[in-house]
Structure formats: C-alpha cells, structure tokens
Request: fold
Amino acid sequence: MSEDTAVAVAAERAPVRQPAQVYAVAAVSALGGLLFGYDTGIISGALLYLREDLQLSSREQEIVVGVILVGAMIGALVSGSLAGRHGRRRVVLWVAVVFAAGALGAAVAPDTATLVAARLVLGLAVGGASNMVPVYIAEVAPPAIRGRLMVLFQLMVAIGQLIAYLCGWLLAGSGGWRVMFGLAVVPAAVLLIGMTRLPESPRWLVEQGHTAAARSVLRRLRPAGADIDDEIAGIGEVVKSTPRQDSRALWQPWLRPALVVALGVAAFSQLTGINAIVYYAPTILADAGFGKSVALITGIGIGAMLVVAGITGAIAVDAIGRRRTMLWFIPLSGLAMAVLGGAFLMEGSAAQHWVVIIALFAYILFNGIGMQSVVWLIAPEILPLRVRGPATSLATLTVWGFDLLIAVTALSAINAVGRSGTFFAYAALNVLCVVFVLWKVPETRNRRLEDIERALHAPGSLRRNLSTSG
Reply:
C-alpha cells in the first residue's frame, strides 16, 4: 500500500468531528424526555402519600396513574398532524408550555377530580414530547451519530425518572406530593427558552419547499466537507417520489412492513412490564412488607438502573446495532422477571427481600438497554418522510395505549392472581418479544433515512433488503 493510500484510508477511518450545534440541538430538545420521565415517574413516590391524603382506593390509584397516559395518547395523535402543518420545532415549543400548565395544575389541585384533570393536561405534553422530540432529533442528526443522539432522549427520560424517585424520597410525607408535581415547571421553562434558539427540521423544510432554508440549517448541523447538496437532493428525491401525506397512505401495502415493526416494538416496550415496575414498585414493595422507607430507596435504585441502562443503550445501539441490542438483552430481561416472580413465592425472609431487589434491578437494567433504548429510535428511523408525522403518532399512540393497559391493570392483576402470577405473565411476554424481533425487526444502524425508505419500496422483505444492501 502506498503512503498516499495509507493516509487516505486512515483519514477515512478517523472519527469525524461533528458540529457542536448538533449536540446542542439534541441536548435541548431531549429536555422533553426529562420532563416525560419526571412527570410519569413522580407518581411512584407521590402515590404512597397521595392515596392517604385523598383516601384513594386501588382503582382510584390506577385512574390517577393512568389518566396521564390517556392524555399522552391524545397528545401523540394530535402532535403528528400539527407537526406536518406547523413544523417539528413549533410543536415542541407548544409542548413546553403545556408541560408547565399541567405541572402547576397538579401542584395546586384541591381534590381528586382537579388532580386527574391536571394529569390529563400533563399527558397531552408527554404524548407530544414522546412523539415529536425523537422525530426532530432523527431529522437533524447525521447518520453516524443519529442512534446515540436519539437514545439521549431515552437517557433523559431515565434521568427524569431518577430525579422523580429522589424527589419522592426527599419530599416524603403528607403534602410533599404537591411540591413534587410543581418542580416540573423548571425544566419546562428551560425547554421553552432553549427551543426558541434551535432550527427547524431540514427535512420538513424541504417538504414545504423551503430548500434554501434547509441548506442553511444543514450547513450548521453537518461536519466540514459534508456534501450538503447531495443530502438535499436525496431528501428532495424522496419527497417527489412519495405521495402527499394522507392518512390513507398508512394502510398501503408498501408501508405495512415498516408499520408492523414500529407498532410491534411500541407494543412490546410496554407489554414486557417496564412501567408496572416504574409506576408501582414502591407500592408493591410497601404492601409486601418492605416498609415505605425501603420501598422509596429501592425506587431510587430503580431510577439509577434506568440511567445506567440509558447510557449503555446509547452506546450499544450504535456499536452493535438496534436489532442485536434487543436480541442480546431482552432474553435477560425475561429471565430477571421470571426470577422476580419466583422470589415472591418464597417466604418473607431477608434472603427473599434481597432476591426481589436484585431481580428488580436486573430487570430494569436489561429491559432498559434492550427495549427502552430502541423504542423511541426505531419508528422515526423506519417510517417514511411523507407519513412520518401521522405514522410516528400511531406508533407513539401504541406505546401509550399499552402503557395505559399496564397502568390500569397492574394492581388489579396482582390482587387477582398474585405478584408471582403477574410477573410470570410479563416474563412470557418478554419471550414473545424476542420471537417478534427475530422475525420482523431489521437493522437500521448507520443507514441514511432515505436509504431505509428506498429499501422499504424495494421488492422483498424489508429486513432482508436492509441486511443485504449494507
């Protein structure tokens, strides 16, 4: 090999320095993930005292927990169509305002009905954030780092949940839940201010015919020497070759493989049991004789595991790929859930308590890496540009729909079949998830969104097309 060739190969393999603004865009917009995590996680610690202050039955507790998910379903559905008309950035700005309003309403709620209404409003913002922030990051990020930037959203969700658990412990006691809810106003204000300084999605700009503006945005978001004109041309080619956004397009045969993957991953992200643990772990442990203090501290450990899982997942999805991350860690998630179910068959000894806590932590870690790191990443990557808004809304709606199913049945299931029976059922659903990934989910690592879309239009299996084209 000549010296010139060796230098060229070395330069090609050297890591490309990405513009700082790419990371700023992802960091600020991912604050929506922190709010998402905090507002869904804070109910875990608040519920221990909220149920006493407001005299809530098990069914009423499920309603207070689950109503935010009803709002999230509505927010996810509406935000997609709004983003198609008004842009991704503007919708995220609106989400920040709704977050602040819902948090204030929950903090000052004088009764159960007002609290339920405030959490419904919070749900609108949670659904909008979970739908639009991953789409926004996917459409501004360079392919080489798109995975880790999008998983930053999930990491911020985990950090928000950890902060929520810490606040639940620090503010424990009657009335402390009001401060827990009100604290969410602070990151909502930061998100609102930060988003005013960020650019619009270049892909949305091209779709609206604002090519010059899209080119200007990409110059700020791509490394020196990047072929901006080629990227603009690729986006334009996809825009021209794809029918105008229409809800009827969601049911066309060419889109079905991508929709099955997006909706399937969305459903299994909840059916594998993560939010039964996140929402109810302190309640389940306290009712099982662990004591409130131990239950709340265990909740902090769960939040820490979610953060570790988020960091590990951010590395794994780009290092080993989305599909392989799922296939390596979801089986371990199912095994940990089965051990948890078995532990509740043991007598309430110190050894049993340790097995329960270790199995809980292991489950959160493995499910967080294998499932939660991928769920907000796969849909924006695999769904085509012209239907990305409504199609991603449908995937997000699926996440929240199954999340709601878990939220309003977890305590009732435990009352009906016991803790062991409930956790064994979740373990079986982890096994079904592995089968689905093996059968349907393709690898999208290091693929341009336009290349994924071309593979979708090509004859044959989407998974096979993407595996052979790379």
Notes: Confidence is low (pLDDT under 50) at residues 1-14. The two ends are 26 Å apart (CA to CA). Residues 21 and 221 are 6 Å apart (CA to CA).
